[in-house]
TrEMBL record:
Record keywords: Signal
InterPro entries: Beta-barrel_OMP (IPR027385), OMP/PagP_B-barrel (IPR011250), OMP_myx_plus_Proteobacteria (IPR030820)
Domain of life: Bacteria
NCBIfam families on file: OMP_myx_plus
Pfam families: OMP_b-brl
Protein name as it appears in the record: Outer membrane protein beta-barrel domain-containing protein
Residues of the Outer membrane protein beta-barrel domain: 15-172
Species, as recorded: Marinobacter adhaerens (strain DSM 23420 / HP15)
Length: 174
């Protein structure tokens, strides 16, 4: 019996939603959700515009000191938006059984944008990697890990904050 592969639809755009966990340095880990719009330049390169939302928790100081608030509730709202360039490093196939094969991509991605947190908007760089499985010619699932880097001075001295994102999502090619 011949194996039929899922092929990327002839369209170059992809829209998707994701959910995951974001570790906001000094402010706990929290639920992350967002969306992305991707344009595939070729089989290897793609541009991605993304937006994500989370909420910062309490610092260790706030937990130990009791009734102390470093940030107000509205300042704990965390959002980011970015523009990224991605590269499919290892395109391949995943075999579920001998009759089912799915096209896959292991990709690297990096870019720049902004993060709104603690009452301020900060220039942000991000970089990461992901794995995408095309379930059909127009539907894909992916899992990814990214680091978001920006300068912050909420707890005194200015420092570079590194926030780790782990997420999974579903996208549609059109």
């Amino acid at each position: 019996m011949p194996v039929t592969e899922a092929l990327i639809d002839t369209e170059n755009f992809e829209i998707g939603a994701f959910v995951g966990v974001l570790n906001i340095e000094d402010f706990e880990s929290s639920l992350l959700y967002g969306g992305k719009l991707t344009y595939h330049l070729s089989e290897s390169f793609f541009f991605e515009a993304g937006v994500g939302f989370a909420e910062g928790g309490e610092t260790s100081f706030e937990k130990l000191a009791g009734n102390v608030e470093v940030l107000t509730d509205s300042e704990r709202d965390y959002s980011y938006y970015n523009i990224n360039l991605g590269y499919n490093v290892l395109p391949g196939e995943a075999f579920l059984t001998e009759n089912y094969a799915f096209n896959t991509n292991f990709y690297l991605i990096a870019g720049a944008g902004a993060t709104d947190f603690a009452g301020d908007t900060r220039f942000t760089l991000n970089a990461g990697a992901g794995y995408q499985v095309l379930l059909t010619d127009s539907v894909a699932v992916q899992i990814g890990v990214r680091q978001h880097y920006y300068r912050i001075d909420v707890l005194g001295a200015e420092k570079t904050s590194m926030n780790t994102e782990v997420s999974t999502g579903l996208s549609v090619f059109f």
